[in-house]
Design goal:
By secondary structure, the chain is an alpha+beta fold. Helix content is 41%, strand content 20%. A hairpin with a 4-residue loop joins strand 6 and strand 7. The longest helix is centred in the N-terminal third of the chain and has 27 residues.
Length: 226
């Protein structure tokens, strides 16, 4: 009973966090209760998939190359950037392919109903010895490299995929230390729960539902993958 209560609360926070402040619940409204129930079922699926990923990536997790977390935005698979890319580069290293293959197998076989957002992050060291305009371009190109590998090499439907680059502006550790900068150079593969937004129709004063995956959208800069 207690576990169900906490799962309900988590589902509520996920719904609000993913849909934004336009997500409205009405006490006793059956449709809202159904949305929470559906999101709770998705949380169960994400939890099962997290356990499967923990089994497949046990060595990488022990080596602190990969981290799995249930967060407000969904199930987050964080991969240390130095494992996937050489310094200043956006081409995936061959050593990282087995890890990405393990992840993609779960994404295809066990999580086909979920969309996937790929986030690129860097440390705050300015670009000096490469052709990238800034860390934004580098982080975006790295996210897109992973996206293209999942789509072209692993056969994941492109409709499920999106990518974004945050540059140095979403650090998870201090950039004052070498270890902190290493943690900040990362790629996050985010499994996105499907939620429903309530959109205000100002012309009629009514609200209507909009289906949303919470996926990030970004046009691919033409110069990034030359």
């Amino acid at each position: 009973m207690k576990n169900n209560f906490f799962k309900y609360i988590l589902a509520l926070f996920l719904a609000v966090g993913l849909a934004g402040c336009t997500f409205i619940f009405q006490a006793g409204k059956r449709s809202d209760a159904q949305k929470i129930q559906e999101l709770s079922a998705q949380l169960d699926e994400l939890a099962r998939s997290k356990g499967l990923l923990e089994q497949k990536l046990g060595q990488e997790i022990d080596d602190k190359q990969v981290k799995l977390q249930m967060m407000e935005k969904g199930l987050v698979i964080t991969v240390v950037g130095d494992l996937i890319f050489d310094s200043g580069k956006a081409k995936i290293r061959s050593e990282a392919l087995p890890l990405l293959d393990k992840v993609s197998a779960v994404l295809k076989d066990n999580m086909a109903q979920f969309n996937i957002g790929i986030e690129g992050h860097t440390d705050n060291i300015p670009i000096k010895h490469s052709n990238w305009k800034s860390n934004w371009e580098l982080s975006t190109a790295r996210a897109l490299s992973v996206l293209h590998y999942l789509e072209k090499d692993q056969g994941i439907s492109p409709e499920r995929l999106s990518a974004i680059g945050y540059g140095e502006y979403r650090p998870v550790a201090s950039n004052e230390t070498k270890e902190g900068r290493k943690q900040n150079r990362r790629v996050e593969i985010v499994i996105l729960p499907n939620v429903t937004k309530i959109k205000n129709d100002s012309s009629s004063g009514a609200y209507k539902d909009e289906s949303s995956s919470g996926a990030y959208k970004l046009e691919e800069p033409s110069e990034n993958l030359k």
